[in-house]
Amino acid sequence: GMPAMGYYMAAPEKMDMKMLNLAAGYSFTDDFFAGVMAMYLDLSMPMRFNPMMCMMTGRNGFTMRSRGWGDTMLMAKYRLFADEPLVPSREASLFFGLSIPTGSISKRNTTHPVPMRRKELLPYTMQLGTGTWDPTLGVLYQRASSPWWWGINARYTTRLGKNRRGWAFGDLAEVDGYLMFQPHYAFVVYGEAIGTWQGKLKGEADEAKSGASGHAVQGNPNSPYATPLWDPAFSGRTRLEMALGLQWQPRPLVIVDFMVKQPVYERVSGIQMRTGPSFMLTFYLEVPTSKSVRALSHTPADEALGF
Asked: Could you tell me which residues are beta bridge partners of residue 150?
């Protein structure tokens, strides 16, 4: 409908995310591991125009796009206790993470069919980074009784202030539990339940503000708020996802992992798209140093799959 009547000029139909993660880590001791992960993102979001915009542009909509390197994650794991150092049956660890704001928060709406709107910022979820330093603290617990493994992990991520454009994503809490079964030394199948709570967005982007109040309004057709993607009230969600995965060890110290994940419950705040299914393919390579216990024997019976 018409913005002056409280409707939007464009609304999202869906969002697709392709992500490539490159990670490397080193175990300094049996109890302490540290690593770094870089992320490359390719984001697209088809937008549907209202009738007025369809007439003006001669199109039903357009697709927002952004791609590039995202934020960089530093991570560390410290094992609090284990009943056996190499393949423990009980283990508890602390997880520490820090997201460094290397991803852009200034991507522009360059694919819009109206030239004057191509200089606008893309909305929050289409930016490549958070723009904030985001520490994470977690607790990890695992039990094993071959050929079974199970565990539960809890993590909390907060934002240290707002970014240079005046906003920050909401805090993030995650709890997941998993059950793994090893029917063969080279294969592990697993199931996982992941609960996520995402807080509402804090603040408002500087270039989204307009009017005497200093805040953009939905009824202004010249404002980015002509789409619901810019409204901080339309952020935050609670979600439960179920995942199934398969790990394959083609040779010792090499693991290929494939996982499919599907939400089974989700509650969002305001007008938002719900989360769809996701797929992840992971390749692990372990390189034991001469000081590692795992460097002494590489027979298949000595290698253990799992986390």
From this structure: 143, 179
Tokens (6 digits) for 281: 């393919």
Peptide bond into 263 cis (omega under 30): no
- Each residue's pLDDT, cut to its tens digit, for the chain (307 residues) gives 666 666 788 999 999 999 999 999 999 988 999 999 999 999 999 999 998 889 989 999 999 999 999 999 999 999 999 988 777 889 999 999 999 999 999 999 999 999 988 988 999 999 999 999 999 999 999 999 889 999 999 999 999 999 999 999 999 999 999 999 999 989 999 999 999 999 999 998 888 765 444 555 555 666 777 888 998 999 999 999 999 999 999 998 999 999 999 999 999 999 899 999 999 999 999 998 877 776 655 444 444 444 3
Residues 71, 133: Cα–Cα separation, whole Å: 9
- Tell me the one-letter amino acid at 119: K
Residue type, 84: E
Amino acid at 75: M
Alpha-carbon distance 127 to 43, whole Å? 9
Query: Where are any strands of DSSP class E within 199-277?
Result: 202-203, 237-251, 254-268
**Distance from C-alpha of 197 to C-alpha of 258, rounded to nearest angstrom:** 25
Q: Which of 193, 197, 225, 190 has the alpha carbon at shortest distance from 209?
A: 225
